[in-house]
Design a protein that fits this description.
Shape: elongated
Distance between the termini: 68 Å
Helix content: 40-55%
Number of helices: 12
Strand content: 15-25%
Radius of gyration: 25 Å
Strand order of the largest sheet: 2-1-3-4-5-11
Largest sheet: 6 strands, parallel
Protein backbone atom coordinates (compact mmCIF):
# COMPACT_ATOMS: atom_id res chain seq x y z
CA UNK A 1 0.00 0.00 0.00
CA UNK A 2 1.46 3.37 -1.04
CA UNK A 3 2.01 5.91 1.77
CA UNK A 4 0.23 9.21 1.19
CA UNK A 5 1.15 12.22 3.32
CA UNK A 6 -1.55 14.48 4.73
CA UNK A 7 -2.31 17.55 2.62
CA UNK A 8 -3.91 20.97 3.03
CA UNK A 9 -6.93 19.60 1.17
CA UNK A 10 -7.36 16.91 3.86
CA UNK A 11 -7.37 19.57 6.59
CA UNK A 12 -9.80 21.77 4.67
CA UNK A 13 -12.24 18.89 4.06
CA UNK A 14 -12.14 17.72 7.69
CA UNK A 15 -12.69 21.21 9.13
CA UNK A 16 -15.18 22.43 6.51
CA UNK A 17 -12.89 25.26 5.42
CA UNK A 18 -11.58 26.38 2.06
CA UNK A 19 -8.08 25.35 0.97
CA UNK A 20 -7.01 29.02 0.79
CA UNK A 21 -8.21 29.64 4.38
CA UNK A 22 -6.21 26.65 5.67
CA UNK A 23 -3.14 27.78 3.70
CA UNK A 24 -3.33 31.31 5.11
CA UNK A 25 -3.91 29.98 8.64
CA UNK A 26 -0.80 27.81 8.45
CA UNK A 27 1.19 30.85 7.23
CA UNK A 28 -0.08 32.88 10.21
CA UNK A 29 -1.84 35.39 7.95
CA UNK A 30 -3.40 38.45 9.62
CA UNK A 31 -6.50 37.80 7.48
CA UNK A 32 -7.42 34.73 9.55
CA UNK A 33 -8.79 34.87 13.09
CA UNK A 34 -6.70 33.47 15.95
CA UNK A 35 -9.44 30.94 16.75
CA UNK A 36 -9.38 29.54 13.19
CA UNK A 37 -5.57 29.49 13.18
CA UNK A 38 -5.54 27.47 16.40
CA UNK A 39 -8.18 25.08 15.09
CA UNK A 40 -6.21 24.48 11.87
CA UNK A 41 -2.85 24.08 13.65
CA UNK A 42 -4.25 21.69 16.23
CA UNK A 43 -5.75 19.45 13.54
CA UNK A 44 -2.59 19.66 11.41
CA UNK A 45 -0.58 18.48 14.42
CA UNK A 46 -3.07 15.72 15.13
CA UNK A 47 -2.74 14.23 11.61
CA UNK A 48 1.02 14.87 11.47
CA UNK A 49 0.77 17.29 8.56
CA UNK A 50 4.08 18.53 7.12
CA UNK A 51 4.42 21.13 4.33
CA UNK A 52 5.31 19.63 0.96
CA UNK A 53 8.98 20.49 0.37
CA UNK A 54 8.54 20.33 -3.43
CA UNK A 55 5.69 22.83 -3.31
CA UNK A 56 7.67 25.06 -0.98
CA UNK A 57 10.71 24.94 -3.20
CA UNK A 58 8.66 25.92 -6.25
CA UNK A 59 7.18 28.83 -4.37
CA UNK A 60 10.50 30.03 -2.96
CA UNK A 61 12.47 29.06 -6.11
CA UNK A 62 14.71 26.89 -3.94
CA UNK A 63 15.23 23.16 -3.57
CA UNK A 64 16.04 23.43 0.15
CA UNK A 65 19.07 21.22 -0.52
CA UNK A 66 22.80 21.93 -0.44
CA UNK A 67 25.68 19.83 -1.70
CA UNK A 68 28.73 18.93 0.38
CA UNK A 69 31.81 17.47 -1.33
CA UNK A 70 34.67 15.96 0.70
CA UNK A 71 37.58 13.62 0.01
CA UNK A 72 36.44 10.77 2.27
CA UNK A 73 33.48 10.53 4.63
CA UNK A 74 35.26 7.92 6.81
CA UNK A 75 38.03 10.41 7.57
CA UNK A 76 37.34 11.72 11.09
CA UNK A 77 38.16 15.29 10.11
CA UNK A 78 35.66 15.33 7.25
CA UNK A 79 32.98 13.47 9.21
CA UNK A 80 33.22 16.07 11.98
CA UNK A 81 32.98 18.91 9.43
CA UNK A 82 29.86 17.26 7.98
CA UNK A 83 28.32 17.06 11.46
CA UNK A 84 28.92 20.79 11.88
CA UNK A 85 27.34 21.56 8.50
CA UNK A 86 24.27 19.41 9.22
CA UNK A 87 23.78 21.00 12.64
CA UNK A 88 23.19 24.34 10.91
CA UNK A 89 21.37 22.99 7.84
CA UNK A 90 18.81 21.08 9.92
CA UNK A 91 17.89 24.24 11.83
CA UNK A 92 17.37 25.99 8.51
CA UNK A 93 15.21 23.16 7.16
CA UNK A 94 17.68 22.17 4.44
CA UNK A 95 18.67 18.71 3.27
CA UNK A 96 22.37 17.94 2.85
CA UNK A 97 23.56 15.81 -0.09
CA UNK A 98 27.01 14.43 0.80
CA UNK A 99 29.46 13.10 -1.78
CA UNK A 100 33.06 11.90 -1.57
CA UNK A 101 35.70 12.27 -4.29
CA UNK A 102 38.14 9.66 -2.96
CA UNK A 103 40.79 12.23 -4.02
CA UNK A 104 39.81 11.84 -7.70
CA UNK A 105 39.47 14.88 -9.98
CA UNK A 106 37.36 12.85 -12.43
CA UNK A 107 35.01 11.79 -9.65
CA UNK A 108 34.80 15.39 -8.41
CA UNK A 109 33.72 16.49 -11.90
CA UNK A 110 31.03 13.81 -11.98
CA UNK A 111 29.77 14.80 -8.54
CA UNK A 112 29.51 18.46 -9.53
CA UNK A 113 27.54 17.48 -12.64
CA UNK A 114 25.15 15.38 -10.55
CA UNK A 115 24.64 17.96 -7.80
CA UNK A 116 24.00 20.83 -10.17
CA UNK A 117 21.57 18.69 -12.17
CA UNK A 118 19.61 18.37 -8.92
CA UNK A 119 19.46 22.19 -8.72
CA UNK A 120 21.06 22.49 -5.29
CA UNK A 121 20.83 25.90 -3.63
CA UNK A 122 24.52 26.00 -2.73
CA UNK A 123 27.74 24.04 -2.44
CA UNK A 124 30.32 23.48 0.31
CA UNK A 125 33.47 21.83 -1.00
CA UNK A 126 37.00 20.75 -0.09
CA UNK A 127 38.67 20.02 -3.43
CA UNK A 128 40.33 16.68 -4.16
CA UNK A 129 44.11 16.26 -4.04
CA UNK A 130 44.13 15.60 -7.80
CA UNK A 131 42.29 18.80 -8.69
CA UNK A 132 44.40 21.35 -10.54
CA UNK A 133 41.81 22.52 -13.07
CA UNK A 134 39.20 24.71 -11.36
CA UNK A 135 37.35 25.74 -14.53
CA UNK A 136 34.21 23.74 -13.67
CA UNK A 137 33.96 25.37 -10.25
CA UNK A 138 34.71 28.78 -11.75
CA UNK A 139 31.94 28.30 -14.31
CA UNK A 140 29.40 27.30 -11.65
CA UNK A 141 30.40 30.25 -9.48
CA UNK A 142 30.16 32.72 -12.39
CA UNK A 143 26.64 31.42 -13.14
CA UNK A 144 25.58 32.34 -9.62
CA UNK A 145 25.86 29.10 -7.64
CA UNK A 146 26.72 30.01 -4.02
CA UNK A 147 29.96 28.20 -3.11
CA UNK A 148 31.94 28.05 0.14
CA UNK A 149 35.34 26.38 0.27
CA UNK A 150 36.75 24.80 3.41
CA UNK A 151 40.16 23.34 4.29
CA UNK A 152 41.35 22.89 0.69
CA UNK A 153 40.41 26.16 -0.93
CA UNK A 154 40.78 27.70 -4.38
CA UNK A 155 42.52 31.09 -4.40
CA UNK A 156 41.25 31.97 -7.87
CA UNK A 157 37.57 31.96 -6.88
CA UNK A 158 36.39 34.92 -4.81
CA UNK A 159 33.96 33.60 -2.21
CA UNK A 160 33.81 32.68 1.48
CA UNK A 161 36.55 30.31 2.68
CA UNK A 162 37.11 28.55 6.01
CA UNK A 163 40.57 27.21 6.75
CA UNK A 164 42.86 26.07 9.52
CA UNK A 165 45.87 28.21 10.39
CA UNK A 166 48.05 25.44 8.98
CA UNK A 167 51.30 27.40 9.09
CA UNK A 168 51.14 28.08 12.83
CA UNK A 169 50.02 24.53 13.67
CA UNK A 170 52.89 22.83 11.82
CA UNK A 171 55.33 25.48 13.04
CA UNK A 172 54.45 24.68 16.67
CA UNK A 173 54.61 20.93 16.03
CA UNK A 174 58.05 21.12 14.35
CA UNK A 175 59.38 23.45 17.02
CA UNK A 176 58.26 20.98 19.67
CA UNK A 177 60.27 18.19 17.99
CA UNK A 178 63.35 20.44 17.80
CA UNK A 179 63.07 21.29 21.50
CA UNK A 180 62.91 17.58 22.25
CA UNK A 181 66.38 17.13 20.67
CA UNK A 182 65.29 15.64 17.35
CA UNK A 183 67.91 16.61 14.79
CA UNK A 184 66.79 15.23 11.42
CA UNK A 185 63.10 15.97 11.01
CA UNK A 186 61.32 14.81 7.85
CA UNK A 187 57.85 15.69 6.59
CA UNK A 188 55.35 13.60 4.65
CA UNK A 189 52.76 15.77 2.93
CA UNK A 190 49.70 15.63 0.72
CA UNK A 191 49.76 16.62 -2.97
CA UNK A 192 52.21 19.52 -3.54
CA UNK A 193 49.58 21.44 -5.54
CA UNK A 194 47.16 21.77 -2.62
CA UNK A 195 46.82 25.05 -0.73
CA UNK A 196 47.05 23.24 2.61
CA UNK A 197 50.26 21.44 1.65
CA UNK A 198 52.00 24.70 0.78
CA UNK A 199 50.90 26.34 4.03
CA UNK A 200 51.87 23.39 6.20
CA UNK A 201 55.31 23.13 4.66
CA UNK A 202 55.84 26.85 5.24
CA UNK A 203 55.29 26.20 8.96
CA UNK A 204 57.77 23.32 8.86
CA UNK A 205 60.42 25.44 7.07
CA UNK A 206 59.90 28.41 9.39
CA UNK A 207 60.56 26.31 12.50
CA UNK A 208 63.72 24.82 10.99
CA UNK A 209 65.07 28.21 9.92
CA UNK A 210 64.43 29.80 13.32
CA UNK A 211 66.51 27.06 14.96
CA UNK A 212 69.35 27.30 12.42
CA UNK A 213 68.50 23.93 10.87
CA UNK A 214 68.97 23.61 7.11
CA UNK A 215 65.87 22.79 5.08
CA UNK A 216 66.60 19.62 3.08
CA UNK A 217 64.15 18.91 0.20
CA UNK A 218 65.17 15.22 0.34
CA UNK A 219 63.46 15.02 3.74
CA UNK A 220 60.11 16.13 2.31
CA UNK A 221 57.96 13.49 0.60
CA UNK A 222 54.56 13.82 -1.06
CA UNK A 223 51.58 11.50 -1.29
CA UNK A 224 49.49 12.43 -4.33
CA UNK A 225 46.32 10.99 -2.77
CA UNK A 226 46.98 12.13 0.79
CA UNK A 227 47.48 8.62 2.14
CA UNK A 228 44.17 7.33 0.83
CA UNK A 229 46.21 4.75 -1.08
CA UNK A 230 48.33 2.99 1.61
CA UNK A 231 51.04 1.98 -0.85
CA UNK A 232 52.01 5.57 -1.54
CA UNK A 233 52.70 6.10 2.17
CA UNK A 234 54.68 2.86 2.33
CA UNK A 235 56.76 3.94 -0.68
CA UNK A 236 57.73 7.41 0.62
CA UNK A 237 58.35 6.11 4.13
CA UNK A 238 60.64 3.40 2.73
CA UNK A 239 62.53 6.08 0.80
CA UNK A 240 63.10 8.08 3.97
CA UNK A 241 64.16 5.06 6.00
CA UNK A 242 66.59 4.06 3.24
CA UNK A 243 68.49 7.33 3.59
CA UNK A 244 72.08 6.99 4.76
CA UNK A 245 71.17 9.37 7.57
CA UNK A 246 67.67 8.29 8.52
CA UNK A 247 65.25 10.87 9.93
CA UNK A 248 64.79 10.69 13.68
CA UNK A 249 61.37 12.39 13.60
CA UNK A 250 58.40 12.79 11.24
CA UNK A 251 55.87 15.58 10.85
CA UNK A 252 52.85 14.02 9.13
CA UNK A 253 50.77 16.56 7.26
CA UNK A 254 47.38 14.85 6.82
CA UNK A 255 45.09 12.61 8.87
CA UNK A 256 45.34 9.60 6.56
CA UNK A 257 49.13 9.89 6.27
CA UNK A 258 49.37 9.90 10.07
CA UNK A 259 47.34 6.72 10.58
CA UNK A 260 49.04 4.85 7.72
CA UNK A 261 52.53 5.83 8.90
CA UNK A 262 51.83 4.61 12.43
CA UNK A 263 50.54 1.31 11.08
CA UNK A 264 53.60 0.78 8.86
CA UNK A 265 56.09 1.68 11.61
CA UNK A 266 54.43 -0.82 13.94
CA UNK A 267 54.57 -3.46 11.21
CA UNK A 268 58.31 -2.78 10.78
CA UNK A 269 58.88 -2.90 14.58
CA UNK A 270 60.32 0.62 14.58
CA UNK A 271 60.06 2.00 18.10
CA UNK A 272 58.20 5.28 18.59
CA UNK A 273 59.44 7.66 19.99
CA UNK A 274 62.91 6.20 20.74
CA UNK A 275 63.86 5.38 17.16
CA UNK A 276 61.64 7.94 15.50
CA UNK A 277 59.44 10.71 16.90
CA UNK A 278 55.98 11.27 15.47
CA UNK A 279 53.55 14.19 15.38
CA UNK A 280 50.81 14.47 12.79
CA UNK A 281 47.40 15.80 11.82
CA UNK A 282 44.54 13.80 13.28
CA UNK A 283 41.05 14.40 14.63
CA UNK A 284 40.64 10.85 15.90
CA UNK A 285 40.06 10.31 19.63
CA UNK A 286 41.81 6.95 19.34
CA UNK A 287 45.23 8.64 19.12
CA UNK A 288 45.13 9.19 22.89
CA UNK A 289 44.53 5.47 23.51
CA UNK A 290 47.34 4.13 21.32
CA UNK A 291 50.59 2.90 22.78
CA UNK A 292 52.48 5.14 22.75
CA UNK A 293 49.84 7.87 22.69
CA UNK A 294 50.18 10.03 19.59
CA UNK A 295 51.00 13.74 19.48
CA UNK A 296 48.61 15.46 17.08
CA UNK A 297 47.63 18.68 15.36
CA UNK A 298 43.85 18.74 15.80
CA UNK A 299 41.70 20.90 13.56
CA UNK A 300 38.49 22.53 14.79
CA UNK A 301 36.47 20.47 12.33
CA UNK A 302 32.95 20.74 13.77
CA UNK A 303 33.30 24.51 14.10
CA UNK A 304 34.67 24.66 10.55
CA UNK A 305 31.50 22.94 9.35
CA UNK A 306 29.23 25.26 11.31
CA UNK A 307 30.93 28.37 9.98
CA UNK A 308 30.99 27.06 6.39
CA UNK A 309 27.25 26.35 6.51
CA UNK A 310 26.44 29.70 8.11
CA UNK A 311 28.41 31.53 5.41
CA UNK A 312 26.76 29.49 2.65
CA UNK A 313 23.25 30.28 3.89
CA UNK A 314 24.18 33.97 4.08
CA UNK A 315 24.87 33.73 0.32
CA UNK A 316 21.80 31.60 -0.47
CA UNK A 317 19.40 33.87 1.43
CA UNK A 318 20.90 37.22 0.42
CA UNK A 319 18.49 39.49 -1.48
CA UNK A 320 21.34 41.19 -3.32
CA UNK A 321 24.64 40.16 -4.89
CA UNK A 322 27.36 39.57 -2.30
CA UNK A 323 30.76 41.08 -3.13
CA UNK A 324 32.48 41.10 0.27
CA UNK A 325 33.77 37.70 1.33
CA UNK A 326 35.34 36.31 4.49
CA UNK A 327 38.45 34.19 4.93
CA UNK A 328 38.00 32.55 8.32
CA UNK A 329 41.17 31.00 9.77
CA UNK A 330 40.79 28.75 12.80
CA UNK A 331 43.73 28.10 15.10
CA UNK A 332 44.46 24.37 15.46
CA UNK A 333 45.24 22.64 18.75
CA UNK A 334 48.67 21.03 19.08
CA UNK A 335 48.37 18.17 21.60
CA UNK A 336 51.65 16.77 22.89
CA UNK A 337 51.72 13.12 23.94
CA UNK A 338 54.24 10.27 24.17
CA UNK A 339 55.04 9.74 20.46
CA UNK A 340 57.07 12.96 20.16
CA UNK A 341 58.98 12.90 23.46
CA UNK A 342 62.22 10.94 23.87
Amino acid sequence: MKFEAATIKDIAKALGLSVSTVSRALRDSYEISEATKKRVRDYARQINYRPNPVALSLKEKRTLSIGVVVAEIANTFFSQVINGIESIASKKGYNVIISQTKESYEREEQILEYLTSRSIDGLIISVSSETEDFSKLEALHSKGLPIVFFDRVVDEIKTHKVITDNLSGVYEATRHLIRNKYKRIAAIANSPTLFITKERLEGYKKALEEHNMIYNPALVKYCAHGGLEPEEVRRVLSELLAEKQKPDALVLLSDKITTETLRILKEKNIQVPNEIGIIGFSNSDYTSMMSPSVSIIRQRAFEMGEISATLLFSLVESKRKVTDFELVSLAPEVIIRESSQK
